[in-house]
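Hello, quick one for you while I still have it in my head. A protein chain has come my way and I'm curious about its shape. I'm sending you its amino acid sequence along with the backbone structure tokens. I'd be grateful if you could look everything over and explain what you see. Here's the protein in full, and shout if anything looks odd to you:
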Amino acid sequence: MRRAGRLARIVLAGLLGLSLTGCWDQAPIENRAVVVAIAVDPGRRGNERWTFLFPNVSATASSLSSTSPSENFYAVAVDAPSLAAAFTAVQQRLARDVYPGQLQVVLWSDRLPTRAVASVVAAVAQNGIMPSAAWVLATVGQASRILTEPSPQSVVPSYYLAKFFGCRSCQPFDLGEESWDWWDRHLTPGIAPIAPVAQAAGQTVTINRLAVYPPDGPPAVMPPLATEGYGYLSGRVNKATLSWRWRGQWLTLADIRDTPRIRVHLERGAVVVQETVNATGILAAVSQRQPMEAAERAAARLAAAAILDRCRAAVRFANRTHTDPFGYARLAAWTDNRAAAGMTPTTLDRLPIRADLTVHVTVRGAGEFR
């Protein structure tokens, strides 16, 4: 009994110690360098150039109003053959403990081939501390430039590119892709990994294209209109807008949203797709001299034609680049097991798409949209 009582006191002391000091891996924020974003560029001698972005812990709530955007964060860049080696090299330059548990964004140059990108994403997924839901982006030119581009939207500890994709209903098209999704696509036959493309012009960053990754080689970058077509075909439209000249004035359909319906099957070395896009929108202000019914009919007709053109452009891009960012082949393989049984993963990845596309547009109101 005496021994049992002593053991109970030891356990109790241990529990009290934990309650007083916190979890074993916790450390004061002033002693940690929290990684919020990482950029990866081609490096020298076969290495990659890794740039780590950290929030400035000296910034406080009272000092934010007098702190410039460029002072909210600081970056450290190293050349290394792997993410683990890069962590070690960065740690040797900092007086704080590098902590990746709050990683928000991973960017990489569009000059990195699929193999190199897959290595980066795998390292993030296998790290154990890094969140697997970090947003991923490809960049035109150096990823480190966009990573460190100061923005008034960047207020510590939030990083503006994470907020850009985190608000899924903010953008006309939901192009956000998380690291786990890129990795899942990479490992699954019949669907190509994608990443939104960020391009800097001065201090403005534009994101309106997609990088599509084949099994090998460099990515293919989808043009803006084809990217919009991908959004419609994939149900990623939140509040798009289309405008035309009609009877001497501008006619605008705003707050466009859509719901696609897809049927697929495998046939004669191709994936055959029948897809209907059902879109709705709000008619913007129309001159009182024009009949509202006529304006609504015109907007529905013009919008359907414009959306169909964009969807066809997206499918043409996929066929031209021998990729399937929509995942049609994956869906067909799941629903048509017998036809897919004799196909290799490489065959599924490169199947041409024969698409029969239909677009229906309904004007659901006029004058008020979000």
Remarks:
- Residues 1-24, 60-66 have pLDDT under 50 and may be disordered.
- Residues 247 and 289 are 11 Å apart (CA to CA).
- DSSP finds eleven helices and 14 strands in the chain.
- The longest helix spans residues 292-321.
